[in-house]
Design a protein that fits this description.
single chain; 511 residues; alpha/beta; Rossmann fold; Cytidine Deaminase, domain 2; 3 domains; six-stranded mixed sheet; 21 helices; 41% helix; elongated
Length: 511
Amino acid sequence: MKRALVSVSDKNGVVDFCKSLVKNGFEIISTGGTYKILVEEGIKAIEIDEVTKFPECFEGRVKTLNPYVHGGILHRRDKQSHLDQAKELGVEAIDLVCVNLYPFKATIEKTDDFEEIIENIDIGGPAMVRSASKNFDSVMIVTDVNDYAKVIDAIENEKNTLEFRRNLMIKAFEHTAAYDSMIANYMNKRFNGGFGEKQFIVGEKVMNTRYGENPHQKGALYEFDKHYSNNFKTLKGEASFNNLNDLSGAVKIASAFGSDNAVCITKHGNPCGFAIRDNLVDAYEEALKCDPVSAFGGVVAVNGVVTKELALKMNEIFLEVIIAGRITEEAQEVFASKKRIKLFEMGHDKLVLANDEKDFKHIDGGFVYQDADKVNDDEVKNAKLMTSREATSQEKKDMEIAYKVASLTKSNCVVYVKNSAMVAVGMGMTSRVDASQCALKKAKEMGLDVEGAALASEAFFPFRDSIDAAAAAGVKSVIEPGGSIRDDEIIEAANEFGMSLYFSEVRHFLH
């Protein structure tokens, strides 16, 4: 008779799984809470100390760390010397191990009690998982409740192949690696400010993309904390590697304004249109005015619900991707005839941001890791007025919008906002002067009036030339971090032109 060792923290589905194992000729060995549930459900099971010939001890800290357990899992069935030694020692083979680990993540989310946290670090579980994984040639290792049906099917239909067990083994090592990484990251966060000698970045695969940035590169989407699984639904088309990067940038900007009816249009990860209005149709129309040329084939993030009326308006040009809180069925029908458009929703009335605590970028040979940048609302509200003229209430609102958009746009950048809509943007430039001039040049080409707009920069102006250019265009209010050795010149220039100048004293580079 084959033997299965079943010891799980997540009890979902375990009773039916064990019933199927017994039906297929398995003897069940179990521990603690799992054993109790199985017996209560009428499943005959052997308690672990009958196998170990040693009582569970130290308040459950030691129960499976035993040669009868690990010998039963690890001895090789293809070596006669192992079989002979197992017989000599009285070690019986364990052919299937079903283990998932103590809920460390759930524990740290609910408590800061370090003693309780320590007690929810699994020791015996990972040891059994690793033992079974190492001996996958003979042993099935099951760590995912979603695999129970698949495992029973393999047992019943002669699909328990070496390849099948190898795939279970890979998943098992991923399981223990992610578990240990989570513990190490938590301990470094608690005691080393989150920056220990090792940093582990663990993501769960959501899907493959057709390719990476280019067709000769492979690509896939991985997620943290089920963000995409819970908040990303494909309605039409297939998200590419580049689409995902672009829509991430668009969603960050559009969702940065809470419940406001905001629409952001991006191209290659940078905003080319943004507006807030009383309704989303008007917001989209205003956002599009900023740069309809770049918007062609772009990505649109709608902080709300795409209705049929909005869909008809958006359908007037070619858009590659639309992501929204929701997209109604009537709106989806409007887009049905457009073969190339891709539609995604988040299943909520508004867009949902993951709000990751950390950020990292790949560099050649490694990665740089940092706290995620956040733009706090009080940065604008508490910004210091540096000139004699104070901004009007509308100018302050425009400054807040421009400041947030600039903070989420590639440096060097400047953003011009008028009446809650972006009218000019220059981004990703090697000089802030170029960014200012390019933005104004584009606005002129689009026939947009910058007179009375608010200007935001994500870092300080090193010289007054950008202020001179803004004044010439009719800008009335400016917000920037300040901190230049020439701040006095900047302030003097703003006063000279009768402009409002505010320093937030917080820089937001985005490289």
